[in-house]
Amino acid sequence: MSAVRDSATPSKLASRIILVVVAVVFAVPILSMVEFTLRAGIDGGHDLGHWAAILDPENSRKYRVLFQGIGNSVVLAAVTVLIVVVLLLPTMILVKLRFPKLQRVLEFVCIIPITVPAIVLVVGLAPVYSVVARLLGSAPWTLAFAYGITVLPYAYRAIAANLQSVDVGTLAEAARTLGAGWGTVLVRVLLPNLRSGVLTASVISVAVVLGEYTIASLLGRNTLQTSLVQLSKSDPFVAVAFALLALAFAFVLLFIIGRVGSIRRIRETP
Fold first, then answer.
1. What are phi and psi of 39, to 5 degrees?
2. How far apart are CA 186 and CA 201, in angstroms?
3. Where would a tag sit more exposed on the chain, N or C end, judged by fewer CB atoms within 10 A?
């Protein structure tokens, strides 16, 4: 078995080649975007004029739609993460502790959204949102209900992987034996042990929300992606610059996750 496992492991040279190819695939479009935002115009040359234009107060009215879209996306990301933490996480813990036979059913339900195209999802959500608009209005944050569905497959996988590595049954039983209520068990006992899974699910949810376009566009909401498309028709340089800033924000979040996970492993190492 060890021989089979060793033969399946790529050599150091193969690993480096794969790493270089992946780095090139990611670097080429990003560097091309950076070069595009530095172009001075049709006369040639490069400068920081387009980046400086973002901070120019005289352009605030021109980029108002974009800043509104960024604000709406930030609110949507926060509400979507709240839905994952408040609804999905307790449900998964409850099924794990009390109804283990329903784990397959819950997994199937959570994975369904990834198999449904966004355009089909919008057709199904349109009648629902007509009711939501009458009850809660048509504010951009209401789009978080749809996003809470689209992030289900990714958030479920991240939390489920963490749940499998933690004996939540023993932890919950020990805390209950000492007199803790279920709220204390969830917040002070289980949640700290599921921190990495919850953090990963939250970051993935934020990334999905910031990159989603189809649902927001078809339901007529102004988000980061829809405003970028609108702005790209009049100023493609600034639109690409904001796309780069969104990528940088996602990379920073991934870096924070890696640092939090590594700090936790160091603390747990005897």
1. -70, 135
2. 17
3. C
Tokens of 209: 């929300």
How far apart, in whole angstroms, are the C-alpha atoms of residue 222 and residue 36? 25
Poorest-confidence range of 60-64, 105-109, 166-170? 60-64
**Most distant CA pair in the chain: distance in Å?**
76
pLDDT bracket for residue 154 (50, 70, 90): very high
Q: Is 179 left (phi over 0), alpha (psi -120 to 50) or beta?
A: left
Amino acid at 261: G
Amino acid of residue 265: R
Q: Which of 252 and 76 is assigned the larger pLDDT?
A: 76
Task: Tell whether pTM > 0.85.
Answer: no
- The Cα 45–Cα 53 span in angstroms is 17
Query: Which burial class, exposed, middle or buried, applies to 111 when counting CB atoms under 10 A from its CB (0-12, 13-18, 19+)?
Result: middle
Q: What is the pLDDT of residue 60?
A: 77
Other C-beta atoms lying within 10 Å of the C-beta of residue 105: 11
**The pair of three-digit structure tokens given for residue 151, joined into one six-digit string:** 């992030």
DSSP state of 11: P
DSSP track, 124-184: HHHHHHHHHHHHH-S-GGGGHHHHHHHTHHHHHHHHHHHHHTS-HHHHHHHHHHTT--HHH
Q: What residues does 46 pair with on adjacent strands?
A: 39
Whether 223 and 76 have beta carbons less than 8 Å apart is answered as: yes
Of all residues in the chain, what percent carry a pLDDT higher than 90? 20
And the tokens for 88?
């999905």
- Are 33 and 239 in contact, with CB atoms under 8 Å apart? no
